[in-house]
Task: structure prediction
Amino acid sequence: MEYPRITKSALEDFSVKPNLQDYQKIYENFSWDKLAQELDWFDSEHINIAHVAIDAHLKTDRKNKKAMIWEGKKGDVEEYTFSDLSQLSNKFANVLVNKLGIQKGDRVFFFLERIPEIYIGILGALKAGGVIGPLFSAFGPDAARDRLEDSEAKVLVTSPALKKKIEDVIPELPALENIVMVQRGKEISDSNDLSYEELMAEASESFDIVKTHKEDYAIMHYTSGTTGKPKGAVHVHEAVLGHYATGKYVLDLQKEDIYWCTADPGWVTGTSYGMFGPWSNGATQAIYEGGFSAKRWYKFIEQRKITIWYTAPTAIRMLMKTGDQLPGAYNFDSLRTLYSVGEPLNPEAVVWGETIFGKAFHDNWWQTETGSIMIANYPIQDIKPGSMGRPFPGITAGIIDDSFNEMASGEEGNLALRPGWPSMFRTYWKKEEMYQSRFQNGWYITGDRAKRDNEGYFWFVGRTDDVINTAGHLVGPFEVESVLIEHPAVAEAGVIGKPDPIAMEVVKAFVSLKVGYEPTDELQLDIQKFAMKRLASAAAPREIEFVDSLPKTRSGKIMRRLLKAKELGLPLGDTSTLEDD
Ligand code: ATP
Ligand code: MG
Result:
C-alpha cells in the first residue's frame, strides 16, 4: 500500500525556525571544515568531546543553564547546569588521573543504571583522555565479561547491585585494576572496591582537560549483536563534529529545546544523541531513569514539556499496542519534532505518530560504526512514510552491486557510504582485518540493503543476511513485516526465509498478537489473505506462526537470525545481547 506523504506543515505552528532550511543548498555547499569552526578546538588538530559538550558553554550565557534534568524511577528529580556538569566531571577526571593512574588511551568502562553518575563519569573519563565504554545495565555476566575482557578495561565504574550480577566473572579480567562503586546510599561488600562518593569528596573541582588529538580514540561501543558477535567499534574525539552537525540539522536542536532521548548510554544512540549531540548544541536534556511504560512516558513528555523526542521503532510499536485512548489523557502541545532510529520504522507507525501527537516520527538511519546519523528525514522536508530519508549534507550514500559498482536509482542493492566523515569508526577493536574488509572500491559497505528513489529518498530493504531468496526473487523482511502489522490483530512480526527444496527459500512470518486476540486457525488464514492482497505473490508469507513475543536485542531490535536458527534447529550463536522475556 502507498502511504500519502506527510507534509512538513507541523513546523509552521512554532516560532522556532528549523536550523536546516534549504536541504539542497546546504547539501551542495556543505563543508565539514566550515562547520568545525563552530566548535571550540584547542588548536587546529586538538579537540576533546567533553570540552565541546560541556565546558565550552561556560564561556557563554549558558553557563548556568540546565544541561540535565534527571528523573529517577521513583519520581525523584535532580537538575544539573552546564557548570555543575563541568565541575563534577573535572572531579572525576582528577580521580581517574591522580588516584587511579589513568593515562591517555586507557579504557574506562561503565556498567551502571541510567543515573547521573554515568553521564558525569563518561564526561570525566573523556576529559582524562580515557577511552570510554558504556555497558547496558541489563547485561548478564557473560555479556559484561566478553566486552570487559576484549577491551582490557582498566577501571570499571559500577554499582553495588550490578556488581553482584557480574561478581563471578571479575577474576577472569586480569587487566581490570580498579572497581569504582557508585553507592547512592548502598553498602560496598568488597573492601578492594573504591567508593565513588568518597573519591569525589576528596577530588579537586579544577582539572586541565587532556588536550586530545582529533584522531585519539575516545569511545568504544560494541554493536548490538543483531547479526552476530558484537564488535567493538572505536570512535575518536573528532566524532563530536558529527554529533554536533547532525544534532543541529537533523534533530534541529536549539538552545531553547528540552530534548528527550530514550536510549540508554549502553547503546551508541545513548551517547551520540543522549549526551554529545544535544549538549554540544547547548540544549537541555531530560532523562528518565525507568524503562518502558506508556503511561510514564506520556506523562514525562507532558510534565517536562519535551520539545524534541528521539526514540526507537520498538518503543513506538509498544505505544501503539497500548491503544489510542490512553494518549488522549495527556497534553503533547510542547512537542515540535519526533525522531526514530534503530530498526526500520513501519509506515503504519509514522502515520500513527501524526494521528496521536500531531507530529510524524522522522525516521533516520545510522549504525554504531557510523557514529552519527547518515540518512534522515529532516524537519523541513516532507516525509514519505517508510523511507529513511535523504543523506546528511556531508555524506555521500550510494547503492552498489555485489562487485561494488554504483547502481541506478530504483534498483535494490547494497547500501554504501563514501568514507571519511568525522564520526566514522576507526577500527573494530582488535579486529583490524574485519574493519578493512568493510571498505571496497572506495565505499564503506554497511551490510544493509536498500534502494534510492528518483527524489533521492532511501528505502530500507533489510540486512544483507536477512534478505530472503525465494523462487528467484529477493524479498526484504521489512516490507513483509510492515504489511503484517497493518492487520488489526498484529502487534509485531518477524519474517525469515525458510529453506525450501523447490523455491530455495519461502517466506515465513512469526507474529505476536495485540491484547484481546486469540491465536486461532481462522485468524492465521485471515492474516495470510490480508498479506496476499497487499504483497507480490513471492513475498506473501507461506507460513505464519503465532508467538507470544519476538526475540529482541536489549536495544529492541528483532533478532531474525534467532528465529531462523530456532526454525532450523541450529545453534543460536551469540545471544549476549538478547533481551529477557
Ligand atoms: P550487529 O552489527 O552486531 O549485528 P546491529 O547492526 O544491530 O548489530 P547497530 O549498530 O546498533 O548494531 O545497528 C545498526 C543497524 O540497525 C543498521 O545497520 C540497520 O540494519 C539497523 N537500522 C538502524 N536504523 C535503521 C533505520 N532507520 N531503518 C532501518 N534499519 C535501521
Ligand atoms: Mg551492524
The chain has a mean pLDDT of 94. The two ends are 33 Å apart (CA to CA). The pocket of adenosine-5'-triphosphate (ligand 1) is lined by residues 223-228, 230, 341-345, 363-365, 367-368, 388, 446-448, 460, 463, 557 (CB under 6 Å). DSSP finds 17 helices and 27 strands in the chain.
